[in-house]
Amino acid sequence: MSTGTGSGTGPGTEPGAGTAPETGAESGAGADTGTGTGTETGTDADSGAAAGKSVEAPGVPDAAIPELVIISGMSGAGRSTAAKCLEDLGWFVVDNLPPALIPTMVELGARSQGNVARIAVVVDVRGRRFFDNLRQSLADLEAKNVTRRIVFLESSDEALVRRFESVRRPHPLQGDGRIVDGIDAERELLRELRGDADLVIDTSSLNVHELRAKMDAQFAGEEEPELRATVMSFGFKYGLPVDADLVVDMRFLPNPHWVPELRPFTGLNEEVSNYVFSQPSAKEFLDRYTELLQLIAAGYRREGKRYVTIAVGCTGGKHRSVATSEKLAARLAAQGVETVVVHRDMGRE
């Protein structure tokens, strides 16, 4: 694992993903302080990218090309926290780098003789005059076979408004309008990038420690697995997870809620799990869905998608979805898929 290489200071201050700021510290999951966690390139890199020059590094072997993660998403959703987490894991982090300079940054990393093996770049609307160059930069990186991933930090409008109000700062795109106007404008600006993201993390209900745990789960490993899966149980009455790639509805099974002796427990309880999977169609569904996931996982690998979030829902997110998530995660792990289980709504009742 490489060692993080210093830090700089960038412009702006963004609210975090919690409900109230902490004095001199981060606010909730996001806590985007806006202070850069990396080092921006100098004037030579600026002039080279501005002139549209090739960023290929003559004589640099492919093995020396650093791994690249692009962190983006909604202002206040936790970009700075995610970036800080990667920096703590040994990544070289650059905050608010103009997108046109990303290929140049990768070239400089390739010339570092292995000292900069992993680079994380934070791209956001603070550099919006350069944002149109991002798609061209991504195309250039793909043409040069650079391994890159996009992490997108998402959050609900309600959570974002609460965070901006808690730190008394305007949204960077609201202008003379309201905070919600800036959020709407930013969502539209980032819509296409969100669709291209390899990993979407919804921080609406996360605090800073939970967000860091999610980042650790995805990036802390010394070796990158072929595919990583998050299996998330949830309750439909609390809404669909916005970061779900696949959604499973377990409401076709009898609800343990209506069994008095099982009602107080959750799907983590053995008796509840046994009840759920004693139903005639439960095990058959799990078998068939696991086979389907094998097909989907193979396609994801071919397309270079490394992360998948499988949302398993029932009415309240307490019994059926929890029991099924645990079983499904065990099946995936047995197939060599690195799996994290999250029970989003368990305990809310």
Characterize the structure shown.
Helix 3 links the parallel strand 2 (92-95) and strand 3. By secondary structure, the chain is α/β, with parallel strands linked by helices. The radius of gyration is 22 Å and the shape is globular. The strands form 2 sheets. Strands 2-3-1-4-5 form a 5-stranded parallel beta sheet, with helices on both faces. The protein has a 4-stranded parallel beta sheet with strand order 7-8-6-9, covered by helices on one side. The chain is built from 10 helices and 9 strands. 36% of the residues lie in helices and 15% in strands. The chain has helices at residues 43-50, 79-88, 102-110, 134-143, 157-167, 179-196, 208-219, 270-277, 280-302, 320-334; strands at residues 67-73, 92-95, 118-122, 148-154, 199-202, 228-235, 246-249, 307-314, 338-343.
Brief sketch in words of this structure:
The protein is α/β, with parallel strands linked by helices.
Silhouette: globular
DSSP strand content: 15-25%
Q: Which residue ranges are poorly predicted, with pLDDT under 50 across at least 5 consecutive positions?
A: 1-60
Q: How far is the N terminus from the C terminus?
A: 42 Å
Radius of gyration: 22 Å
Number of helices: 10
Query: Which strand order do you get reading across the main beta sheet?
Result: 2-3-1-4-5
Q: Major beta sheet, specifics?
A: 5 strands, parallel
Q: Give the H and E element order.
A: HEHEHEHEHHEHEEHHEHE
Helix-and-strand structural type: alpha/beta
List keywords for this structure.
4-stranded parallel sheet, disordered N terminus, alpha/beta, 5-stranded parallel sheet, 349 residues
